[in-house]
Amino acid sequence: MMVMKRHSRLAGMPLAVVAALAMWGGPSVAQAVRPTTAPTGDFPVVQAWRDLKMLRVCGDPDNMPFSNAKEEGFDNKIAEVIARAMGDSVVYLWWPHRRGFVRSTLRAAECDVIIGVPTNFDPALETKPYYRSTYYFVSRRDRNLHVTSLDDPALKTLRVGVNLIGYDYTNTPPAEALAARGISKNVKGFSTFYGPETAKPADIIDAVVKGTIDVALVWGPLAGYYAKHASVPLELVPLPDSDAKSGVPFAYDMAIGVRHSDQDLRATLDSILTAKGDAIRQILGEYAVPTLPPVRP
User: Fold this and answer.
1) What is the CATH number of domain 135-238?
2) Which of 113, 202, 267, 291 is least enclosed, having the fewest CB within 10 Å?
3) Which CATH number fits domain 7-132+253-286: 3.40.190.10, 3.30.200.20, 3.40.50.2000, 3.40.630.30?
4) How does pLDDT run across 33-48, given as a tens digit for each residue?
């Protein structure tokens, strides 16, 4: 087993919820990496670690349904597909997708790819997108709320849940859109990540199931995955691509990020994403990720 450890105060960005907010500074600790897949190899690639037959992935060890240290997330499965096509094994540099992520991992050359970044993500050079999703209204089907618009008057009285990001509780796009409409007193914030006080990403969906909130506004992959595993049927209604009132986007094309200098690696990954598109779409479907056609082919 190879182990990489690093302690620093660097910069990064929370990728899982696609908040498009740079979150600079803050401590974090990188943990173990380990090979996971057997090489088979269809695509050549030029990179420093190629001779060791390793695809070095910057990953979050506790961020389902995207990734975890047991490699149970859909980002983990997509990484396996890519590594097999390259004839490599997957090795991870584990680092939480919070403050200190990108500069501590990709920019520090401790790993080479980030699975799941929004396109136009300045800290990295991104590939072609391999899926697009948006935020969703989530409610219990038996409540028959049928909220389909942020301008629905019911949102001023319903108990509404939104995700919050970061140590300073930076607003996600739905939170900003609600605030632009003067909707805040009846809004409850939920952690986007696993937290030290038992907070977990599924909490916002659990609150809908239990009836402690009436409707939640949740990033599509989180909404789809946790709704699939909920104990009661849930209704998911997509938000539009963007919000005219607040100007915030809700829908994002998702890609793979590499260093800006790794043009050859990006080209190789683009080829693999095209060749393995069906396999990747099957993985997304297995994790109930609701998708839209990418804006950029």
Assistant:
1) 3.40.190.10
2) 267
3) 3.40.190.10
4) 444 444 445 554 444 5
